[in-house]
Write a structure and sequence with these properties.
With 448 residues, the chain is α+β, with helices and mostly antiparallel strands. It has 14 helices and 14 strands. Helix 1 packs across helix 2 and helix 6 runs antiparallel to helix 7.
Length: 448
């Protein structure tokens, strides 16, 4: 490979697209040397033009662009989760599937994106086409019974209907998902009985009423469908778990969503960006444990291999015996934790080695109020650093982060101090800061 050390403009020159039969793309330079893996100008121009087009669409048609991006990558769960997180950051809401509005793909609406029915597990193209045909022919479905009465139960079976209920596709009709599940068997039997009657040329009293031109107030046929006794909805955590089981990720809500703003300040690392960090880099993150696999080493020590996720993605993490001995009580499925650790790369896979963890309900931060004059004063900065370093204590116990709130006119900026300024005892740190003339207070992660 030849390194180019200088360039000279030659004005406008003809450009030719040189076809190369092999994948080497090697070209002979004027002095006889070979430049490998070169791309000709027309190739670069094409890439540049596509880049311009996509940037233009994202800037001017963000909802349509993101909907197309989600649809194109709908088979890649990691990418879809990352793009949904991007939508959230752009202020674009991604709504759960809807039996009355969703198509096969992600659909751009006026100010949001609607999840496509094609992304719902256990619902194939056959059931989707049957649903869309019935909806296009006779309008929106009024209830679960109305839908079951209008579609072929051999195509849209119980498994598909369960999946649609669990993922929230009936929420605009009935918010109580557990009630729909309890009703399902009764409604399916009722709809199948009606289908058999129609096939044999029979009808029922309510069908006669609804088809009569003289009876104006006859009830719709689906209103006669049986219902199970009233039952409370699933607990929120269970509802989200079932939703994720069907879609692969959370849509209607996320256990970490309420902590998004706090996470940006306290733990700005996103799991989707973990590949960008060098091996051994110390990081912290706010995560949820999606699965836990306990392991016993040959020496009899306990450790765990876990799957963790945040709003942007997921990764594998390991808690080795020394750390597990201290934090093992927190390593439980569905736990929401603040974790500290290092990036590790093995077999070209990135892992998070967790050294320490704390439930998010227990996480505290020291908030230091500063105006711009104080924040820009070098002497005051030095005093502040000195106080914080004195409160650090033992390195492995200094877990309380310090955040400065810099006020400038009508705006407030949050600045997180580096890990070297974490303190061991937040109350002692607040007292020391107050004694030094700084305004400080404690804040929990949930209220930051």
């Amino acid at each position: 490979m030849v390194k180019i050390i200088s360039r000279q403009a030659l004005g406008t020159q003809p450009v030719f697209d040189i076809g190369v039969s092999s994948d080497d793309h090697n070209f002979l330079l004027a002095n006889g040397l070979v430049a490998s893996n070169c791309f000709n100008k027309s190739h670069s121009t094409a890439y540049g033009y596509v880049t311009y087009q996509t940037a233009y669409l994202k800037a001017n048609y963000p909802i349509e662009y993101m909907a197309a991006l989600l649809t194109t990558n709908s088979g890649d769960q990691d990418k879809v989760q990352r793009y949904i997180a991007s939508c959230m950051a752009m202020g674009i809401r991604v709504e759960p599937p809807d039996v009355n509005r969703s198509g096969v793909d992600f659909t751009p609406l006026e100010d949001r994106i609607l999840f496509g029915l094609g992304g719902v597990r256990n619902v194939g193209m056959g059931p989707i086409e049957s649903l869309l045909a019935a909806r296009n022919q006779d309008g929106a479905f009024k209830s679960l019974a109305d839908l079951c009465d209008r579609v072929d139960s051999r195509t849209v079976n119980r498994r598909a209907l369960e999946a649609l209920i669990y993922c929230g596709a009936f929420d605009t009709i009935e918010l109580n998902r557990q009630q729909l599940i309890k009703d399902l068997d009764l409604v399916i039997d009722w709809a199948q009985s009606r289908a058999r009657d129609r096939a044999s040329g029979q009808g029922n009293l309510f069908d006669l009423f609804s088809s009569s031109t003289t009876v104006k107030e006859a009830p719709a046929s689906f209103e006669t469908a049986p219902k199970a006794p009233p039952t409370p909805d699933f607990p929120q955590q269970e509802k989200l778990r079932l939703e994720k089981e069907i879609l692969g990720f959370y849509i209607s809500d996320h256990p970490l969503k309420a902590l998004r703003e706090s996470a940006r300040v306290l733990a700005p690392i996103s799991l989707s960006d973990l590949n960008d960090y060098k091996e051994g880099t110390s990081i912290s993150a706010i995560v949820m444990l999606t699965s836990v696999k306990p392991v016993v080493t040959k020496k009899g020590d306990r450790m765990a291999i876990i799957q963790i996720e945040d709003l942007t993605g997921h990764t594998e993490a390991v808690v080795f015996p020394k750390s597990y001995e201290r934090i093992g009580q927190y390593i439980l499925a569905d736990a929401r934790l603040m974790v500290w650790g290092k990036v590790d790369r093995r077999d070209e896979q990135v892992q998070f080695i967790i050294d320490d963890a704390e439930p998010i309900e227990s996480v505290r931060m020291v908030m230091v109020e500063l105006d711009t004059r104080l924040a820009s004063d070098i002497e005051q900065q030095h005093r502040l650093r000195t106080v914080l370093l004195q409160q650090r204590g033992e390195d492995d116990k200094a877990k309380v982060s310090v955040v400065a709130i810099v006020s400038a006119q009508d705006k407030r900026h949050f600045v997180r101090f580096g890990p070297q300024f974490r303190v061991q005892n937040y109350q002692a740190a607040i007292d020391a800061l107050a004694k030094a003339g700084f305004q400080a207070r404690v804040s929990s992660l949930a209220t930051a």
